[in-house]
Amino acid sequence: MYGRKVKLRILFLVALISSIILTIFLILKSLEENVVYFLSPTEVKSLNELTQDKIRIGGMVKENSIDISSEKINFVITDFNNEINVMYSGLVPNLFQENKGVVAEGFLEDKNYFKAEKILAKHDENYMPPEIKEKLGEK
Asked: In terms of CB atoms within 10 Å, which of 53, 100, 126, 139 comes out highest?
């Protein structure tokens, strides 16, 4: 029915499309581990049911909400509409401050309380490491 050249072209196109789809899939799969997805406090409050899975909650550290004791740190994450109380045991990053962005990874106890296992401090696009800032200041 089809000639040999037509069959080879069809086979080539199928192989090309398959390899493109496979390449895109592998790229997206590898990026999945490096992209930080998080829920805002408003999104957490609107959840229908609590999940037992590990999740990430992101927002701003509310001003005057950081309470540091000998074993744990309590603070409030806000998106300026809703707030979630966070409890964390461990060392916090140097960029962790009030009125700065933060992403906490852990488990929801209820819609108002989050037990964090990891804290990821975020910085804005204007952030510059202190070492580089000093070198630029000298020049």
From this structure: 100
